[in-house]
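Hey L., structure's done. Input below.
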Amino acid sequence: MTRFYGAIASPENMAPYPSPRKVNLVGSRIRELRKGHRLTQTELSDKIGIAQSDLSRMEQGEYKVGLDTLFKLLQVFDLKIGEFFGESETAGPEDRELVTGYRGLSDEARQEVRDFVRFKKMQEESRTDSDGPSQEEKE
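Output:
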């Protein structure tokens, strides 16, 4: 958990030169989240109240990310701090809805869902293993 925290600017860790690797990891994570949400740097910087050039430098690992900025990012991306730092898988609203729906099913229905998921996985694997388009893709 603490492996990334050195890249965050806070009174406790105001070392003059943070590890460039840690700053880059935080910046890469911001870029990953921004692109995953299909936001431009300008759009995200407007949402969190910083200049676009500052966001760019954060993503490139040139600037430390302040705690206030981190908290704004967490709010924009609807993440907990542990999720930001990769401590748990991030489940989006659709994933949570599926899990909730699955849990409400009978044992028999759950088995059908598991069987269907296995079937779809095998179907996708066979598509990627074949050289040409599948019969469904030809139609």
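The radius of gyration is 21 Å. The chain has eight helices and two strands.

-- N.
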